Amino acid sequence: MNRAEATKRFHGGDALAELIDESQPAELPTPDTDVPMVSRSVRLPLETYERVRAAADARGIGVTTLMRQWIEAGLADLDDSATVSLADVRRALAALSRPTAA
């Protein structure tokens, strides 16, 4: 049954439950993870989004996956349970990679 026929039957007094019973079950996509996910909306300036998209494309992953990785890395920086914080390690490595003035 197409949309027009369903609309005509509905407005003609046919019960909605009967229309649903006659329809084919929808095939939903299979989730790509066993971990429950929460969807959140984030507003980004267009230029920022384009930079994120380019970074994701360069890595061969989706924008959402890259954002999730960045958020997880940022949260790891906040983890005070580590012997040395990841943020301190990154700062130390950055300082070592800078040339020193002689």
Care to describe what's here?
The longest helix is centred in the last third of the chain and has 15 residues, at 63-77. The protein is elongated. The chain has helices at residues 3-11, 16-22, 46-59, 63-77, 86-97. The chain contains 5 helices and no strands. The termini are far apart. The relative contact order is 0.05. 56% of the residues lie in helices and 0% in strands.
Shape: elongated
The averaged pLDDT comes out at 81
- What can be said about the biggest beta sheet? none
Number of strands: 0
Give the proportion of residues in helices. 55-70%
Radius of gyration: 26 Å
- Compute the number of helices: 5
Structural class: mainly alpha
Q: How does the SSE layout of this entry go?
A:
Elements: H1 3-11, H2 16-22, H3 46-59, H4 63-77, H5 86-97
Helix pairs in contact: 3-4
Short structural description:
This protein is mainly α and 102 residues long. Helix content is 56%, strand content 0%.
What are the main properties of this structure?
102 residues, mainly alpha, 56% helix, elongated
